[in-house]
Amino acid sequence: MSTTIATSHNFPPAPPRNKRLSIGIIGSGNWGTAIAKICGENARAHGNHFRSKVRMWVFEEEIEYKGEKRKLTEIFNETHENVKYLPGIPCPSNILAIPDVREVTRKSDVLVFVVPHQFVDRVCEQMKGFVRPNAVAISCIKGVAVNKQGVKLYSEYITERLGIYCGVLSGANVANEVAREDFCETTIGYNPDLGTSVSAEMMVALFDRPYFSVAAVKDVAGVALGGALKNIVSMAVGFADGLEWGGNTKSAIMRRGLLEMQKFATMFFDSDPRTMVEQSCGIADLVTSCLGGRNNRCAEAFVKTGKSLQQLEKELLGGQVLQGAATAADVHELLTSRDLVKEFPLFTTVYRIAYEGMKPEGMIQVLQPPVEESENEFTTETNDD
Ligand SMILES: NC(=O)C1=CN([C@@H]2O[C@H](COP(=O)(O)OP(=O)(O)OC[C@H]3O[C@@H](n4cnc5c(N)ncnc54)[C@H](O)[C@@H]3O)[C@@H](O)[C@H]2O)C=CC1
Ligand SMILES: O=C(CO)COP(=O)(O)O
């Protein structure tokens, strides 16, 4: 079993009252709001550890609400509901929606990053210079940052941009189900050896709820990559849904996908291969996303309707952001630059279907065993009689 370093059973001692931590949520989408709800509940439940007020940065927009145009922050602070991204879910009244990311940054000891990965760069740019000296971050973002130099986790990227320690939270956590308080598990990747002012136990205390069971491990890369890469595999399963392939074929895709996830995490990072198969951030997230996450739904519709993924994102997601196609492109760019495309046939096929017009039926070739494997004694022609 990969080593679990903290769970809700290791409840941390309370810090002195003047050292209680202020929590800031950077993001307020579907998952951002569900995470803010969890932190808001725990800030109240553990008043000796956290300050009650949880600040949530909202990318401000005007929306049509009860017949008039209103600001999303005003509606949230009045109704305690994110009517655009998490409708129907009452949030605790100690969450305050704030349109200025610098104000949230300035006033927070723990910064919880939960924005679609496409926006991390510009958000960090605005936060620079406003971060508290002892602040720490935790990233709930599912994606990878690729450039000419190679690949980075978003937690590493945040550390580099803002100069603060950043852990990761990721798991089988479809936001609407978590917000409804259906039971689920999640994984925190947190490595206290790298020097952080907030312990792994304290991070668990911030997120663990009776319906949201948290385990912390040291394998930050394994946790981050499980969430990022399963988005590619869930698109592959969505293409299979579009073709009306059955459960056996889809589980073959999931198995091959899991192996590529594990291979990627150990090839490019020092990740423990057991994380992908033992923790919620690996196999469990892969399964839940393939059973009907947003990537899966858009990929299915892509095959059934012939519309572009951008169009389907607009039509099906109500302002939420599709991550899998962008991650497939990021990963493909990296694999191409390292001449490793053939080592990751499923990831590559998803890229080709999404961007190069490859027919989704072609996915079946990826599932066939490689030629060397099928050449065994039973297939050799004999002339015995
Ligand atoms: N929704 C889910 O079920 C889960 C999502 N995640 C991950 O959490 C991260 C955040 O996802 P969600 O909260 O679901 O976001 P979302 O998909 O609901 O995206 C909408 C959010 O993006 C913001 N946004 C739009 N344009 C922006 C801009 N130009 N600059 C900054 N922000 C902008 C919107 O204000 C809104 O808060 C993603 O990496 C996702 O993969 C992780 C677990 C579950
Ligand atoms: O990450 C998720 C569940 O854990 C959600 O996945 P989607 O973005 O595909 O909905």
Commentary on this structure:
Mean pLDDT is 94; it is low at 376-385. A hairpin with a 2-residue loop joins β4 (62-65) and β5 (68-71). The strands form three sheets. This protein has a nine-stranded mixed beta sheet, sandwiched between helices. Strands 4-5 form a two-stranded antiparallel sheet. It has two domains: 4-218, 3-Layer(aba) Sandwich (Rossmann fold), CATH 3.40.50; 224-368, Orthogonal Bundle (N-(1-d-carboxylethyl)-l-norvaline Dehydrogenase, domain 2), CATH 1.10.1040. It is globular. α8 packs parallel to α12 (294-305), α8 (220-242) crosses α14 (324-337) and α14 (324-337) crosses α15. The protein contains 17 helices and 13 strands. The protein is of the alpha/beta class. The relative contact order is 0.11. The protein has helices at 30-45, 72-79, 101-106, 120-127, 154-162, 175-179, 200-207, 220-242, 247-268, 274-278, 280-290, 294-305, 309-317, 324-337, 345-356, 363-367, 371-374; strands spanning 4-7, 21-26, 50-57, 62-65, 68-71, 95-98, 110-113, 136-139, 144-147, 150-153, 166-170, 184-189, 212-217. Bound molecules: 1,4-dihydronicotinamide adenine dinucleotide and 1,3-dihydroxyacetonephosphate (13P). 1,4-dihydronicotinamide adenine dinucleotide binds at residues 27-32, 59, 85, 114-117, 119, 123, 140-143, 173-175, 319-321, 323.
